[in-house]
Write a structure and sequence with these properties.
Layout: E1 8-13, E2 19-23, E3 28-29, H1 32-46, E4 50-63, E5 66-79, E6 82-87, H2 94-107, E7 112-113
Parallel strand pairs: 6-7
Antiparallel strand pairs: 1-2, 2-3, 4-5, 5-6
Length: about 110
């Protein structure tokens, strides 16, 4: 495992004070928290606990046939045969809270927050 100080290749700031991160493998994340969670899920995947990890998966939200918005999940994977939709948040915005409710109402998906 690489030296802990060299995990992040480069980072920049955003409006929520999170730092965008690019891991040494080239994978980009919106925050250090999201990058750490990715590494945790990758360990679980290598151990066989989770399967089929996908990043930044879009879900279209429609009501009565009308496109309302798009929700992009940070991680989607299978755990014990069930699909898990996960979002890593440091701050729950009003927009995110609404999209979370719409995901449950329109797709029957409960978002796991980490």
């Amino acid at each position: 495992m690489p030296n802990q100080r060299n995990i992040y290749a480069r980072s920049t700031r955003s409006k929520f004070k999170n730092k965008k991160v690019t891991l040494e493998c080239g994978t980009k994340f919106d925050s250090r928290k999201e990058a750490r969670r990715y590494k945790e899920i990758k360990l679980l995947e290598r151990a066989g606990v989770v399967k089929d990890l996908q990043l930044q998966v879009p879900f279209q939200i429609e009501v009565n046939g009308m496109s309302i918005c798009k929700y992009v999940a940070d991680f989607v994977y299978n755990e014990e045969g069930a699909q898990v939709v996960e979002d890593t948040k440091g701050f729950l915005t009003p927009e995110y809270k609404l999209k979370k409710k719409l995901m449950r109402a329109c797709h029957g998906i409960e978002i796991l927050e980490t």
